[in-house]
Write a structure and sequence with these properties.
By secondary structure, the protein is mainly alpha-helical. It contains 22 helices and 9 strands.
């Protein structure tokens, strides 16, 4: 019998490529790159012949298949076909940053953090993030263009957004690593740069089962070091704090509990930490996380979600944001907003974005911020962004309206080079001034500030190459009977269908008036609750009422399970008689006299309600 390895495979069995979750569980030594996403994304090559075959019969896709070539794998394509995906699970460590704060007793550590340029991250991270809102925007991200495809054109997070929202450096050296970090080298790096023992390092990496350390482990071992400690301990604690900081913010991965040790190499020389382009690396990492989350089977979103959420607040203030009136422009723009969980569903977020108008967008949100932080020239850079093994294209020419210019038809997006060609990428980045958009490429400024103008032919071109509407009309809430009858059978249990059924049912009962018995209202609420909760017993045992017709005729309730002709009271027919007199109830402070019990009193007959109605009419006439 062949021996079985720790990963569960026999030595002579054919090996298969492990999934992301299996890689995190395996402990045996292998060569990995923790910076790259656990689910690597291959950018599609532009092959026109293959594209024609792949996109055949894909409803809702772009007409011109030369740009979004991988759209058939996109979550938006699945949604258009009737499949649904729950809101993404978000990796947000905003609350964990408050567990390790630098007070006056740790001023020496704070001085090093301040010189690194990363100090704003300690205070501007949002503690909460809205799952429906971020999930709805993620469904509009397109990997080929690294932009959000909105109903009126493309938008994206630019280097200007990063500099204004976070106040971290966007220029400097590109973050690269000489080679992927091997698991057997992690312990030596922890011992050298953090001063831990080999036993402690081995125990921690074995518990993480990856070349990473837990955020909790960093806090437990280094958060107690103060200015009274030795110089070496303060240096170790500073590196540990910076590693904890970037693991909670810029490079938050989908493990949700740990940070890759490879970033520790960037803090070897603390005097050089401020020379890196942290903002550019953060943006490349977030681009990759958004790209991975566009797959239908992915259920989680990593990256620095404060950057994404604050970007949404800045550009769509009337839809999602709640501003902080105490904010001043000298602080990062992330602090301008009070993050809150929006009480909307993912379905509602999709429909709100589908109906979004160009007038609802704030194209230039940093006008008041320019006095403190002018527009960085590198925001016009057109090329690649890099963070370790992650390389993503950056296309400011596709979002000229965010810079105050009239949007033109942009050139085709380029495919980024392989990450192993790091020397060429670094040389290209170091000469970024040679690769900014020229005045001719930028074109003309908008006639009015923030108008979001585009050339006349732009929208016709954009309609051919994009997927402007995510939610198909037959799946929207409030759809018609004809649209509902054309739905696939597997869509009948989706949340929007259940909501429409429940609203229709409640609409029928409300139209019956106030004189119905409590049992009718209780039965309607119970039935609506069962529909919204997706109860199989309710939907299986009771028939579903048809949507209410457009006319105002009295609806039919004969099919409802709780309907009884003896208990239901229809509203009185319209007539020329004056309405009945409505006697207001006595004030709450005046207690009504207690009724005297009469054993011989019989139950009220069925004409009681009619009698009250007639008496009221007579009193009104007198």
């Amino acid at each position: 019998m062949s021996p079985r390895t720790r990963g569960g495979y026999t030595s002579d069995a054919p090996r298969r490529r492990p999934t992301g979750s299996e890689r995190r569980r395996r402990v045996h030594l292998r060569e990995v790159d923790p910076v790259a996403d656990s689910d690597p994304v291959e950018h599609p090559q532009h092959d026109r012949d293959e594209t024609e075959e792949v996109f055949e019969g894909a409803p809702g896709g772009p007409i011109d298949r030369s740009i979004l070539q991988s759209f058939h794998k996109h979550v938006a394509a699945k949604i258009w076909l009737g499949e649904d995906r729950a809101p993404l699970k978000l990796v947000n460590h905003g609350a964990k940053l408050q567990l390790w704060e630098l007070d006056m007793e740790r001023s020496r550590i704070y001085e090093s953090v301040h010189r690194s340029g990363l100090a704003p991250l300690t205070s501007c991270s949002h503690r909460v993030a809205s799952r429906p809102m971020l999930s709805a925007f993620c469904e509009r991200w397109q990997p080929e263009t690294t932009t959000f495809h909105m109903p009126f054109g493309e938008m994206t997070i630019t280097l200007d957004d990063v500099a204004s929202i976070l106040h971290i450096p966007v220029t400097g050296s590109m973050i690269s690593f000489p080679q992927p970090l091997r698991v057997d080298n992690v312990n030596a790096l922890l011992v050298e740069l953090l001063g831990t023992t080999d036993v402690e390092a081995s125990r921690e990496t074995e518990q993480c089962r990856s070349p990473s350390v837990r955020l909790l482990w960093l806090r437990d071992h280094f958060s107690t070091i103060t200015d009274a400690s030795s110089d070496d301990d303060i240096m170790f604690a500073t590196r540990a704090f910076l590693l904890h900081l970037v693991g909670c913010t810029l490079f938050a991965d989908k493990s949700a509990t740990s940070v890759a040790v490879v970033y520790l190499e960037l803090f070897r020389d603390l005097s050089m930490v401020g020379s890196y382009a942290w903002g550019a690396a953060c943006l490349a990492y977030l681009y990759r996380q958004l790209t991975t989350a566009t797959r239908f089977e992915v259920r989680q979103l990593g990256g620095y979600l404060t950057l994404l959420q604050a970007w949404i607040y800045e550009h769509f203030p009337e839809m999602f944001s709640s501003p902080d009136i105490s904010y001043t422009e000298s602080r990062p723009r992330a602090l301008r907003w009070r993050p809150h969980v929006i009480p909307d569903s993912l379905q509602s977020g999709r429909e709100r974005l589908d109906r979004l108008q160009i007038s609802e967008v704030c194209w230039e949100p940093y006008v008041d911020h320019r006095a403190e932080h002018p527009l960085p020239d590198i925001a016009w850079y057109s090329g690649c962004l890099k963070c370790g093994q992650v390389v993503e294209p950056y296309h400011p020419e596709r979002v000229l309206r965010q810079f105050g210019y009239i949007q033109t038809i942009p050139p085709r997006p380029f495919t980024p080079p392989r990450p192993d060609r790091s020397i060429l990428l670094e040389q290209y980045w170091e000469r970024w001034t040679d690769h900014v958009l020229t005045d001719q490429s930028r074109g003309r400024r908008c006639h009015y500030s923030g108008s979001g103008e585009s050339v006349p032919e732009y929208m016709a071109w954009y309609d051919r190459i994009s997927h402007r509407i995510v939610q198909p009309p037959q799946l929207r809430s409030g759809f018609t009977t004809d649209a509902r009858s054309s739905l696939p059978s597997h869509v009948a249990s989706t949340s929007d269908t259940r909501a429409a059924r429940a609203l229709t049912l409640l609409r029928l009962v409300i139209s019956g008036g106030r004189e119905q018995s409590v049992d009718v209202f209780w039965g309607a609420l119970n039935e609506a609750h069962g529909i919204l909760a997706g109860s199989d017993e309710t939907s299986a045992s009771h028939s579903t009422p048809s949507p209410a017709p457009a006319s105002h005729s009295t609806p039919s309730l004969a099919t409802l399970p709780f309907f009884s002709p003896a208990t239901f009271v229809y509203p009185p027919a319209a007539s020329d008689d004056p309405p009945p007199l409505i006697v207001p109830p006595p004030p709450a402070s005046v207690a009504p006299p207690a009724p005297t019990a009469d054993p011989s009193a019989s139950a009220p007959d069925s004409t009681a309600s009619t009698t009250v109605y007639v008496r009221a009419k007579r009193k009104k006439k007198t």
